[in-house]
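Q: My labmate handed me this sequence with no annotations at all. I'd like to see what the chain might look like in three dimensions before we decide whether it's worth expressing. Could you predict it?
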Amino acid sequence: MVSEDRSGLELDEFLCLTFPLVNKGYLRDQVRAGLVLVDGSSTSPSKRLRIHQVVSIDFDLDGAPAAPRGRGVRVQVLWEDASVMVVDKPAGLAVEPERWNRAGACLSGALLELACERSGGRGDDGRSVAGELEFRPRLVHRIDKDTTGVLIVAKTIEAERGLRRAFDEGRVSKRYLALVEGEYALEDGEETIVDLPIAPDARRTGRMCVREAGGKPSRTRVAVERRFRGYTLLRCEPLTGRTHQIRVHLAAQGFPLVVDPLYGRRPALLLSELKRGYKSKPGRVEHPLIDRLTLHALEVAFPHPEGDGDVRVEAPVPRDLARALKQLDKVRPPRL
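A: Here is what I predict for the chain of 336 residues:
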């Protein structure tokens, strides 16, 4: 029976909160197949429920595909209220399940497990949660698996719709730190806009490229944050939302990320590459300063979906990137 606090929810949202460990797409399919009834009648997933209505199901929950999993990954919440949270995504964690590793850990799964824990259940071992979820996390944008930093999560369907609308209308701003090869030619305080169309690379699956004919308009605002000999830390603000946009734009200008196996030349950065006369200790393997994309989503600003002004949240620079920057300061200080 629909309780007062669930009244007004759409049916698929009600089902996701009631059965949080079941795949959301599967639940919607059962509604469309007529296996979920409201007061004895079949309906659509978007049907809004009223208090005291009876929802009944006629499908096997034991055989249902599971929702994404977090596999014990802990995600830091940077900011939160009743309808939105902003989290700090760690490196190496895909935002959604990867096609070739559906059972692997992902951010959406980690967030679902967090919601399960807050609702008094376990949610991390595939078993049912004790009670219903207070909210179901909804990711409204993505960043690459090996990029760290801020990510906005809606806690209600209304917040998700409001945030998606803000993204579509260009009212959400994101600022990244990008450590690149080369000395970017901008004066302090000066900005430039990289305006190059981007399209999928027909020669390599999963890769994007700059292409004048058929490419989508793509713009990135760039400024210098810190300088080193042979390297630059840039501040980048994507003004459009193309796949791999910052990486493609910087590489096309001749300034690829220091670590980027797809668009750059390194899978990792070693101190021996930076420090003249570096000698490793006998019998010890040199560990990289950083072995993932040198890209960090530093800050996001967005209008609150309930009209409560603008929200601005910043994520701390992660340890591996901070370590690389510290060594660059020591062994590659800027030219005088």
